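Handout, section B. The chain below has 202 residues.
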Amino acid sequence: MKKFVVLFCLLVVLTFLTGCSGLANQRYALDSKELNDKNSAIVVGEIIDPTMYMGTGIRFINVSSNEVIDYDKASIFAFRATPGRYILDIVGGRSNSFSSKTPFQFTVQAGERVYIGTILKPMTLFLNTNQEALSRLKELKPKITGTQVYQEYSQFLASDPKTLNGEPVEFYVADNSEALKKLAKDKIPNVSIESFVLRLMK
């Protein structure tokens, strides 16, 4: 019985350690066994969504290789990315997501460490508002450097999961690198963000 309890505890710990990164595919984790500084870059960013207390799902696609990087419940995110041009394909959750015909994008090369910016979800969508996130969003408004139109779609109501059936809204990217340096020490302690190149998505 004691051995069973110990084994169960180990499984719980392992599940937490592998799941807390938010990455659907651990190939792109910072400690990936397949990717390293010779064949990939490290990408860091953030999303501030006052409607979500546990973070928001995001999807990046490498249009050069068609690799897909899904990040579930993101707030501050960090992952390894193979060289190429990436688009921010999807922002949101299972039933309330947004996509764009002109998505934010960025490029990386192997060996780089890149901060791609802080994604801001527009205030017009706020329902159950996280006040801390709302306060930070207002502080970052003057630091917005890029805007792209994304449109809502429902994965449950639409026959085609990517049918854009909602109102078009503007998502923003802001430079929050100075504040992120402090936050990153707790969220991603293995990465020194001071060494990162500022390359905001456009």
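Note. The chain has one domain: 2-198. Compare this with the example in section A.
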